[in-house]
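Protein GrpE, Streptomyces millisiae. Tokens?
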Amino acid sequence: MTQDPQGFDKEPEVPDAEAANQDLPAESAAESPAEGAGADAAAGDAIPEPPAGDLQDVALTAQLDQTRSALNERTQDLQRLQAEFQNYRRRVERDRIAVKEVAVANLLTELLPVLDDIGRARDHGELVGGFKHVAESLEMVAAKMGLAQFGKEGEPFDPMIHEALMHSYSPDVTETTCVQILQPGYRIGDRTIRPARVGVAEPQPGKPAEQEESAPEKDNGGGPDEG
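Tokens:
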């Protein structure tokens, strides 16, 4: 006969879950709801933190505002420098033109006696041959540099551009008139470098009164002769 091994004829005992729950202490069951309520209250009192994306947007907006402010400042500085440079260029150009005009005027002023000699030689018929060509070339160069001659007989006397060296009275003029050009005047543009030296004539004193007195005599004397 065979014998069953000992210890294998009984099934292992499995603890009952309900019995285990019943065996828990009452204090543990009471503390669990209190701890849950405290955690819920702490979670309700805490300040909610903004999302990470919103913080990044705020930082980018502040950086963009700072960049725009710096850009506006640099733009204003650039505009100010540009305006100063433009004023500097205009001032330099104006000074350059003024220096050029002064230099040309000084050079042509030194040539005026030579031009006077050429004019006198022409008036006397001595401007002939090679001297004539040289004189004409010199006058052409002076004209290209802006030198212009003025002063003619018969034009009204202007003390701003004429210098009276001779004075007389004439019945042929009604105002102070240049009747003789002793030396022509010269100008460069609107700048007079030498006034015209002239002889002037003024109307004779008392001429209008004498004409008014003689006019009625001629009218009265003409009647009997016609009759």
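The longest helix spans residues 52-123.
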